[in-house]
Specification:
Oligomer: homodimer
Largest interface: A-B, 71 and 71 residues
Structural class of chain A: alpha+beta
Radius of gyration of chain A: 25 Å
Chain lengths: 679, 679
């Protein structure tokens, strides 16, 4: 049981407010504390101890803070005389880092890095223009520092990213206000935001090439109650989808500017932009209840999850324009699957879950979180993947940071690291919600303590006036047993997510010593319902290793399986298969898969082991007649070997080398083959 | 038998000269005439009648000629007042079109478009700077026309493309001189070339981000005998490979600037750049005999053909940087396989063939020519593919010209159409060569008449003083029978290529009515040798349809076959499979493949037919547990249907729609499956 920091425990986390159209509502940010022994809690601790300080340091070394200091009076001792550095949206790295620190404050109840934060807030305030405008790339383009001469604000909506930068500034300000009660950063953000709202109200057609400000302005409405921010979002969504942003080098769909938001049936264009936009669309729905918004988002969710998502939860197949690609175009080797798309997918899933209360959105959220998002950061918390391939080949050229063979400390375009930091700092707020009927709904399993005043305004619903204290103990996702213990009979019903990968017939549920029939307990939204009064709930999920196949139209992985256990997707790494070329290995699925031992180096509680065969393919011609090819492409026969699969989340932490998620399956003998194995 | 135009028949074609280090040498450009009834001859006729005029017209509509007219005195009636249009290397579109017209002159013995050509030559001469410099993008960048202010020549070697433009100008000038005897364009080109040679000699480190000038300068040496051009090429090759060109947004390997040319073991970077460079490297070898050059080229040839070539002959897998990609990274759907890479591959193969006399280079040349290069142009000769995918999916977004679902008349970057035109206009020169031992070597089969004075300087070797007149008659590649008839017993030995796809044991060869044992006649370089004195030679190649499998490391096509007959790769198109979704179709390879009827609409002499099955996959989840998936991914069972494959070269000529070269093979029953087909 946990005491929350005075005055902050009851404040909201991200997506904080009354959410009139939500089916299920977030708890206060302090309601859930993830324990240090579980996967999620350790992740948050590592984020606080390593990733957030690393990001803060990189704001100095990358030039992101100097870009702001350039704008100070040259007589100011803090003035920086060098040129602008980095992409034109580098300010957002600063803002995302501030947001991460804020949520970390809310999580820990401490005030980490407060002196640095105050210095940055002071810097922002001092360089902010009289209108509130605060994009250092545009403000600093005076022709004296090697950049293009004096662009006007909002002159290049397609590529300028100014409202994107504003969005992140707003989110940082809101987070700091909620986490610490300090309005200093929020004031800076609102000064700029108010100018944008005025311009929109005056008819200026401000719509940003990179969505993000939409969610931010809805949060600002939640924080201030000022409906002008909602109206601004509505206006920006209406402006979008009519080709206003122009094109070149990419088509309007790249910027989600080809189809009006309410009419879209498929995801399109740049994945991160599309996913942020959809999060914003659902944010507006949560406040307004406009069904067309949720319906459009749900259609696009079905499209992307039915046709354009990697088995790791990654999204955005293409390197060239960072876009989704055609339906079923999911190459593992050239998967772009940007880390920020993983983050954005989680943010969208969270809002879909709040809007609908349906477990499939929580399934997706957890899946992306534990696979593509987790993989983006090294086990020490200080190196990152920009893109997250599902295969690295022998001979891969990883010189380019967008297709690196290993994680890197920072990037020319450094959007991902602080984005990961802000998400991880707040992920305890996604563990549970309060349903419209008052039930406490548990979405994510992990070692956690929950303390909620169920009569409080947040997590509203039929209040009981009684606090609920609940301890969740589990080795999940390495173990399928989850035990929830309330310190008194629960005053409200409970609901536990039955993950989509879990077979209800093999799931066990026990409430205060009485076994409950799982199919009967399962509601229409994917949760196991337990009436009020429960004290000890034991859920046992089936954790047998699973071999996963893809839809037959996913040509790139035909004849392969991916290995999973619970929500965790696994991969093979060369380092675990000495003496063979990883691409030569095929899996003998019929020989079965077993749970392997934990790996303390990688920090995982389980691995998978199986049997494979390797036939050296060196010297095989690139193409040959099948009629001459008695061995069916060289995947039969070969030397038997043990296969070890580790969680995808931790690949690439033992040096660089080949890796693959999709593993070719040993072909069954063909009619007429005289031998099955050996050469 | 054909009379060549007076004075031009004995002139050389491309790669024209004594080629001291060649193992086999080109014939004069007029030695071979392709007949109008064969595939190659019809292609040349269409090129002359449709493609070349189309390119000439596009030089006007695209602005390529106006870019030059901008540089005229404003008082000049021909002066153009508008801004520069297109990419900074648009001049090369003009030069490649001029080269195509020149080779077309040599082929036809006529002087097509001569008035237009003279006007363009005159325009070039009038805008040429005093030093000879003639890049209209740089010359026209005076800040008055919307372009960047006044760049200096050669200030941006990485991206400026100036020597690339010069190379194409030189090749056009050489072609016009050889084809027509007119030196007007050659003089313009040499004025610029001589300035570059002087700069190099003075120590300027001129090395172009886009190779092309290397082959051109070697041709200029062949044409003029001036060794300074050879020395310039040697110097440019030495300058390359040391990172002089810098980087951004791509690494030095993109420009082949990471590794010295003599040390390279793999192809790297932008495919067209690499392939042009390798053609130039072999051109220098042909003149100098420096073994290190040929050895490096041969290593890279083995790399690209063993690990990085599509089954269509296409090269360059990646869209993002137009590069080759990692070994075995050959996705059919995202194949970039630029048309210009196909052209460049043919040009390199031709030089490798001349250098070595080995049939595998002719195999590759023919394969690229009849598949990826042929596919790039529509059946009417006026529309083109920029990239040449091996699969188009249902739902493909073909809005971008680089991934278009259908051919287009022109492109923002219009490198491909005139490149195709110049190659096709000269491809009769690749039909046969003269070996070092005096033999006439036939590389390409087609309806053709050959007339060569074997004592002439070109096609040198032990001369006989006697002319050889040879008629080749065949329906190849639709028919495997080739008959060569000399009008008198051949004064020299003959050698006929045995294609790599042809099984020697099933090939028949008959010389003057006597059957020859094919394995015995086969020399170590892949040719069937026939002694002097032959009059009628009949070659019969085995033309059974073939199902081709890929190396097991080509993950993207696992479980699939490509269909071929002779050198022609086939594909399935949706238009031939009404009532099913093309992606649902699997091929029953065991049911066999038959030769189907010709298709006059598509202009092909044969198609392929087989048996497939289609199981609708709509509604199948994107991922599912294999254990729950009794049907093995949905590719078994289904409705039986006839499958029709058409040559890849003619895909996309009957409207836009799904297409695939690699076809999933119906899975054999798995142990434990209770049924094989039907649902």
């Amino acid at each position: 049981m946990t005491a929350t920091a005075p005055g902050t425990g009851a404040r909201p986390g991200p997506v904080g407010g009354t959410l009139p159209s939500a089916r299920t509502r977030p708890l206060p940010a302090g309601a859930v504390r993830l324990g240090p022994s579980g996967l999620l809690g350790r992740w948050q601790q590592r984020n606080a101890a390593a990733t957030v300080p690393h990001c803060l340091g990189a704001l100095e070394t990358s030039g992101a803070l100097d870009n702001l200091r350039r704008l100070l009076d040259p007589a100011d001792p803090e003035h920086h005389a060098g040129p602008y550095r980095g992409f034109n949206f580098a300010d957002s790295d600063v803002h995302k880092t501030l947001e991460a620190i804020a949520w970390e404050s809310a999580r820990s109840g401490a005030a980490p890095h407060e002196a640095e934060v105050r210095r940055v807030v002071d810097l922002l305030r001092r360089v902010q223009g009289p209108s509130g405008y605060l994009d250092s790339h545009v403000l600093g383009s005076d022709g004296t520092a090697g950049t293009a001469p004096s662009p006007e604000p909002y002159a290049d909506l397609r590529w300028g990213h100014e409202l994107y930068v504003l969005g992140h500034l707003v989110q940082a300000g809101v987070a700091r206000a909620r986490a610490t009660g300090q309005d200093d950063l929020l004031d800076v953000a609102m000064t700029w935001a108010d100018d944008v709202v005025s311009r929109l109200a005056a008819g200026e057609e401000l719509v940003c090439g990179h969505p993000e400000v939409e969610s931010a302005f809805v949060e600002l409405f939640r924080e201030t109650g000022d409906a002008a921010y909602l109206e601004a979002v509505r206006r920006m969504l209406e402006l979008r989808g009519h080709g206003r942003l122009g094109s070149g080098p990419f088509e309007p769909a790249y910027h989600q500017d080809a189809t009006p938001v309410r009419e879209a049936t498929e995801v399109a264009g740049h994945a991160v932009r599309q996913l942020y936009l959809l999060a914003g669309v659902v944010d507006l729905y949560l406040e307004t209840g406009e069904d067309a918004l949720l319906a459009a988002a749900a259609r696009q969710w079905d499209d992307v999850h039915g046709r354009r998502t990697y088995v790791t939860g990654g999204m955005g197949s293409r390197h060239k324009d960072e876009s989704f690609g055609d339906p079923f175009e999911l190459p593992p080797d050239r998967a772009y699957a940007e880390s920020c798309a993983g983050v954005a997918s989680v943010l969208w899933d969270w809002r879909m879950l709040l809007a609908t209360g349906e477990a499939r959105y929580a399934d997706s959220l957890e899946h992306a979180l534990l696979n593509v998002v987790a993989a983006a950061t090294s086990t020490d918390g200080t190196a990152f993947f920009y893109s997250n391939p599902l295969q690295v080949r022998t001979g891969h050229d990883g010189a380019d940071e967008y297709q690196a063979s290993g994680r890197r400390g920072w990037f020319a375009c450094a959007c991902c690291p602080p984005n990961l930091a802000r998400l991880v700092a707040s992920l305890h707020t996604m563990v549970a919600t309060r349903d419209g009927d008052g039930a406490l709904v548990v979405h994510l399993y992990g070692d956690a303590d929950l303390e909620a005043d169920l009569g409080s305004e947040l997590g509203a619903g039929p209040g009981t006036g009684a606090p609920l204290r609940l301890a969740m103990r589990t080795g999940y996702p390495w173990d399928g047993d989850v035990v929830l213990t309330a310190d008194a009979p629960s005053p409200v019903p409970l609901a536990l997510r039955l993950p989509g990968w879990a077979d209800a017939a093999r799931t066990r549920l026990d409430v205060d010593g009485v076994e409950v029939d799982v199919p009967t307990a399962l509601d229409g939204r994917g949760y196991l319902r337990i009436g009020a009064g429960a004290r000890v709930v034991r859920l046992s999920l089936p954790m047998e290793p699973r071999a996963i196949t893809a839809h037959p139209h996913v040509d790139a992985v035909r004849g392969c399986v991916a290995l999973a256990r619970g929500p965790v997707v696994h991969c093979l790494e060369q380092v675990d298969h000495a003496g063979v070329v990883l691409e030569d290995v095929v899996l003998d699925v019929a020989a079965g898969l077993e749970v392997g031992p934990p790996d303390d180096t990688l920090g995982v509680g389980a691995t998978l082991v199986g049997t494979g065969r390797a036939t050296p393919a060196a010297g095989t011609p690139l193409y040959r007649d099948r009629a001459r090819d008695a061995a069916g492409g060289g995947v039969e026969g070969g030397v038997e070997l043990p296969v070890r699969a580790v969680p995808y989340a931790v690949w690439g932490n033992r040096g660089e080398g080949p890796m693959r998620v999709w593993i070719p399956v040993a072909a069954p003998p063909r009619p007429g083959d005289r031998r099955r194995s050996g050469r």
